[in-house]
Amino acid sequence: MTHPNGRQDVLHIAIVGSGPSGFYAAEALLRSGRNVQVDMIERLPTPFGLVRSGVAPDHPKLKQSTLVFDRISRQEGFNFLGNVMVGRDVSLVELQSTHHAVILACGAHSDRRMGIPGEDLEGSHTATAFVGWYNGHPDFRDRVFDFTQEVAVIVGHGNVAADVCRILAKPVDELRSTDISDHAFHALSESRLREIYLVGRRGPAQAKFTPKELRELGEIEGTVARLDAQECHVGAQCEVELASPTNTFAAKNVELFRSYILNESSGASRTIRFRFCLRPVALHGNGRVEAMTLERNALEGPAFAQVARPTGACEVLSCGLVFRSIGYRSEAIEGAPFDPQRGVVPNDRGRVLDDSHHVPGLYVTGWQKRGPSGIIGTNRADSIETVEALLSDFAAASGSPRPGATALRDLLEGRGIRIVGLEDWQKIDAAETERGKATGKPREKFTRIDEMLSVL
Ligand code: NAP
């Protein structure tokens, strides 16, 4: 709404989630030229989502995006409200009453299931849990991984599987000066793992690793990356895929896989074995995982749409640890529409849809909007699209004035919630950095919420 004096009413926007998509949405709003007040709500006392708790500790460059987020958070018109969970401390309906619009940017912190017998046996884990554990996420801090086992199987051929494999395979000395959590460093330093299988349901041409990540798996000190020549079968339709100029990653991957055929295991303390066209059918064991049955798949269908069809031929692989890394998944938020099939919030370019109708004032961005794909930067364009939709909906008028953060704070404080503001986070950040100095690490993360709050 524009006043006669030309001043626009402030548009109060709540962003739920403080990962990359949330920060890029905040940036787009603050750059828009509109008079906006952005209130970012985060359930943990710490911001940055998967950049803090997902990016592998030995990939510090990827974490530099936090410098950009940090700059965004210092802009006028930005508020951080950490340690506040939507659905527990405040409802979505309440947020919709204090703010003109709500942008859901909660990412995908759950995981897809294989849906096979034995999946929940002890020793069978999700990549989500393992990644969260080594990165010190409070939800996963107390998970236990049995590194007295010698054989691990990772299901999935994506970059998360590559991260899991690298952290399992790397000599711990190479992790010592990273921001890996102390508990994970100590547990991994006792690891007796010797064989790590990376099992994909399709072939080498369909693996979703980026070549950089795949190459790194072949460069780990003391570890050899291997595959058998017959595993590296590339059929006629795969050749069509590999010849496409838009599919250069796959061509590079296949070249790398072929180079691993020649590798010798002798002398290596660990071996990474790539297996293709295998579908996990069941996990077995007496109280804990001891083996996995895999069924051979054949690829069928045209290039770029080849699907894996089971052939009935099975093999049993002995293993003591299993990590399923077959994709993250968003979770439903009470009061917001959700598509359980796709694991996303249904939307049209960021406008949340309920039965094909836009829910006024409700938007979504990032993995919750499009599913778990792309790199950190992919979320920038995604969030710009959502913010453009939002701003065009509010182009003519803001509608009735909303109280924004003032009312939200009153409501939360009335409920006894300790809101962690930006300055509080900066104190936690400084304390973590200080703790890291003693051991030459960029930071030693607090892994429990009460530890974080005790700094304040
Ligand atoms: P992803 O790249 O989608 O890979 C998932 C893998 O799981 C694929 O090999 C997929 O096979 C397989 N899969 C899916 N459902 C399955 C099932 N039911 N049974 C067996 N296998 C199944 O997912 P992601 O590895 O979780 O990564 C998520 C996103 O984060 C990606 O965009 C990734 O590039 C990004 N990421 C980037 C980095 C980095 O830049 N360093 C690090 C981590 C993650 P199909 O191909 O047959 O579906």
Strand content: 15-25%
Which shape, going by the Cα principal axes? Answer: globular
Q: Structural class per helix/strand content?
A: alpha/beta
Which stretches of 5+ consecutive residues score pLDDT under 50?
1-7
Radius of gyration: 24 Å
CATH topology of the largest domain: FAD/NAD(P)-binding domain
Instruction: Name the bound molecules.
Output: NADP nicotinamide-adenine-dinucleotide phosphate
Q: Helix count, per DSSP?
A: 15
Number of domains: 2
Which CATH-level-2 architecture of the largest domain?
3-Layer(bba) Sandwich
Tell me the number of strands.
18
CATH class of the largest domain: Alpha Beta
Percentage of helical residues? 25-40%
Largest sheet: 7 strands, mixed
Spatial sequence of strands, sheet with the most strands: 3-2-1-4-18-17-16
Distance N to C terminus: 40 Å
What is the CATH superfamily label of the largest domain?
FAD/NAD(P)-binding domain
Q: How confident overall, as mean pLDDT? A: 95
Give a summary of the structure in a few sentences.
The chain has 456 residues and is an alpha/beta fold. It has helices spanning 20-31, 49-53, 65-73, 92-98, 127-134, 159-169, 182-189, 211-217, 236-243, 248-261, 367-370, 378-393, 405-414, 422-437, 449-454, and strands at residues 11-16, 36-41, 78-81, 101-104, 110-111, 124-126, 151-155, 195-199, 223-226, 270-275, 278-284, 291-300, 307-318, 321-324, 328-329, 347-348, 351-354, 357-364.
